[in-house]
Amino acid sequence: MSENKVALVTGASRGIGKACAIELAKAGYDVIVNYAGNEEAANNTVKEIKDLTHTNPVAMKFDVSNKEKVETAVKEIIEKYGRIDILVNNAGITRDGLFIRMTEDAWESVINTNLNSAYYVTNPVSKIMIKQRSGAIVNMSSIAGVFGNAGQANYSAAKAGLIGFTKSLAKELASRGIRVNAVAPGFIQTDMTKDLNTEKIIELIPLKKLGTPENIAKTVKFLAVDTDYITGQVIGVDGGLVI
Ligand code: NAP
To answer: By CB distance 3.0 to 4.6 Å, which of 34, 41, 59, 115 could disulfide with 10?
Structure first.
């Protein structure tokens, strides 16, 4: 059992999820660093957290798009830690392409990993939070889910779905002391965006720079830890790209 509060961050081996894991650990949470396959990166995240904090992070491999694997993992977390105070549904992938050429596989894998995963993970975790009568959930949406993006019909559909999910769940769970919010990042420097032509993108961003994973992590920590009166909101962290 954990003396600290516990946070589960999906897709925390790299990028935005890693920064969220570090930020929440700095706030005193024992963080479960979920990942899909990149064990070395996940272990590095855990090591960085241990070097920076006195918390007890652990790397945990499970595929968020696999309902059975998620259920087993959540059971293990509860056996080991006894509670889950924060859930960050962050794991995500892209498989971009024009819609007329989009394969069913590209559609399904993106919907499964970015949207169905939120159902698979949040369903068992919210039951635990309901028993605790407290908890905070943050879903990682995207500017693509707010405004759409050519070449990302699958991804935009999933990220827009997360926004509807966030608002509905916020209404259902508020009376149980559980808040549910979403963050909609713009263009953030991670492996996901490393092949983009950033010069052209930066021209479009009012603040004239890409975001960092830490920009997103600070917002996630604000929503999950620092406030207790915000729920059902989608916070854009995009350098002004949507204005
Ligand atoms: P990233 O650098 O590509 O990292 C993706 C993370 O998700 C990795 O930790 C990866 O684990 C994990 N992951 C992927 N599929 C998984 C699965 N099936 N089960 C469990 N974990 C899985 O991505 P990122 O840029 O940090 O993006 C994080 C989130 O922010 C995503 O939801 C993304 O859609 C969203 N977002 C990103 C941007 C951006 O500009 N980067 C903008 C808007 C929204 P492994 O290391 O094991 O592969």
So the answer is: 34
